[in-house]
Design a protein that fits this description.
Strand content: 25-35%
Distance between the termini: 20 Å
Radius of gyration: 19 Å
Structural class: alpha+beta
Number of helices: 3
Largest sheet: 3 strands, antiparallel
Strand order of the largest sheet: 1-2-5
Oligomer: single chain
Order of helices and strands: HHEEEEEH
Helix content: 40-55%
Length: 94
C-alpha cells in the first residue's frame, strides 16, 4: 500500500478529507523525524517504537575496482514492532 492508498482508506474510515488526512500523516511522520534526529524514541503502546540503532563500521568492496573501503559506523532509523502488532500480523498471515 502506498501513501495515496493509505490516505484513501483513512478517508473512508474517518470521513475526513484527503487533504486533512494528508496533513495528519505528514505531521505524524515529521514528528517522528524530529524525535529521532534529537536522539529520542517514539513509542506507541502495542504498535511498536521508532528508534535509532548504530550500524557498526564495516568493510565493503567496490565492484568496479575490487577495492575495499571502510564505511564508518552511523546511526540509522529502525522500527521495532510491539507484541500486539506482531500477534495481529501473525494471525493474518497464518
Amino acid at each position: 500500500m502506498n501513501k495515496n492508498e493509505l490516505l484513501e482508506k483513512m478517508k473512508e474510515r474517518n470521513r475526513l478529507s484527503k487533504s486533512e488526512n494528508q496533513l495528519a500523516v505528514d505531521t505524524f511522520i515529521n514528528i517522528i523525524y524530529e524525535a529521532l534526529q534529537n536522539g529520542e524514541k517514539v513509542s506507541l503502546k502495542g504498535f511498536g517504537q521508532f528508534v535509532t540503532k548504530e550500524r557498526k563500521s564495516r568493510n565493503i568492496r567496490i565492484p568496479s575496482s575490487e577495492k575495499e573501503v571502510r564505511v564508518p559506523a552511523k546511526e540509522i532509523p529502525a522500527f521495532e514492532p510491539g507484541e500486539e502488532f506482531k500477534n495481529k500480523v501473525e494471525r493474518i498471515i497464518e
